[in-house]
């Protein structure tokens, strides 16, 4: 009965304001912070292809715990992807609470934002739009990683990007993720006053500068990385090597040395 009363009135039976909205806000902030930092780490991981195929292969095997399991275990990547997916869906559910429920609410919010001319309010609209796009684009990507964790590597990932025509989705996902993530982390810092210091206004101005710089940095890094995978995937298709798995240089050299000794 107390939950029913709270649901209708927004107050507890003791006539106190419900703390549920604040708790949900906290969950949204915590999951958003985790996902934002995770995506930055993820970007650095996938961009390892820009260093070399061998380096990207080594990073992949590290996350498969090859230092524990011989050859690595892709199941660990599937489990990590599942955990991220649960957090991703939870964050999306929390974010949906604040989206306009109908066109009339959208009109009111849009008119309010236009009249105020407030940049942070406009950033909220961008974040809402990119978040909506990510719900679909991100779900596809994470599901693929969960179910095809053994198909991650210099060649396998490149074939998925190029030959399986995933690059259009990744372009849209990259744009949505980088704008949503940097705006979200900026708004988190403002909301919780993490770096306010003695002059919150000056801090906000600095944070906006950092936000723009980080957005450009990760967009450039992301598109350079995607271009590298597309190039490798294109070359594999032209050479008829689609489906082949990458063999690191060290293993090829070891094979040649052993083969030479046998001869």
Strand and helix layout:
Elements: H1 2-9, H2 20-46, H3 53-63, H4 74-96, H5 103-116, H6 119-147, H7 154-162, H8 167-192, H9 200-238, H10 249-262
Helix pairs in contact: 2-4, 2-8, 4-6, 6-8, 7-9, 8-9
Protein described:
This protein is mostly helical. 76% of the residues lie in helices and 0% in strands. The protein is built from 10 helices and no strands. Helix 2 crosses helix 4, helix 2 (20-46) crosses helix 8 and helix 4 runs antiparallel to helix 6. The longest helix has 39 residues, at 200-238. The chain is elongated, with a radius of gyration of 23 Å.
What composes the largest sheet?
A: none
Helix percentage range: over 70%
Element pattern in H and E: HHHHHHHHHH
| Overall SS class | mainly alpha
- Quaternary organisation of the protein chains: single chain
Give the amount of beta strand, in percent.
under 5%
Residue runs with pLDDT of under 50 for 5 or more positions: none
Helix count equals 10
Quick summary of this structure?
With 263 residues, this protein is mainly alpha-helical. The protein has helices at 2-9, 20-46, 53-63, 74-96, 103-116, 119-147, 154-162, 167-192, 200-238, 249-262.
């Amino acid at each position: 009965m107390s939950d029913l009363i709270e649901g209708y009135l927004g107050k507890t039976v003791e006539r106190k304001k419900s703390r549920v909205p604040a708790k949900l806000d906290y969950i949204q902030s915590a999951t958003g912070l985790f996902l934002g930092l995770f995506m930055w780490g993820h970007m650095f991981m996938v961009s390892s292809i820009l260093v070399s195929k061998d380096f990207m292969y080594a990073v992949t095997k590290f996350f498969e715990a090859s230092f524990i399991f011989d050859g690595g275990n892709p199941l660990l990547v599937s489990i990590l992807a599942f955990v991220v997916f649960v957090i991703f869906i939870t964050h999306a559910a929390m974010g949906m609470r604040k989206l306009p429920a109908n066109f009339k609410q959208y009109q009111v919010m849009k008119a309010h934002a236009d009249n105020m001319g407030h940049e942070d309010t406009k950033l909220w609209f961008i974040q809402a739009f990119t978040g909506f796009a990510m719900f679909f684009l991100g779900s596809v990507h994470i599901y693929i990683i969960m179910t095809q964790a053994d198909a991650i590597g210099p060649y396998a990932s490149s074939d998925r990007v190029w030959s399986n025509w995933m690059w259009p989705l990744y372009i849209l996902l990259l744009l949505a993720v980088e704008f949503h993530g940097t705006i979200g982390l900026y708004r988190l810092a403002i909301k919780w006053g993490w770096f306010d210091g003695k002059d919150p206004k000056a801090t906000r101005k600095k944070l906006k500068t950092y936000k723009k710089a980080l957005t450009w940095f990760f967009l450039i890094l992301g598109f350079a990385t995607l271009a590298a995978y597309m190039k490798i995937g294109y070359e594999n298709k032209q050479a008829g090597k689609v489906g082949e798995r990458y063999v690191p240089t060290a293993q090829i050299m070891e094979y040649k040395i052993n083969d030479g000794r046998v001869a």
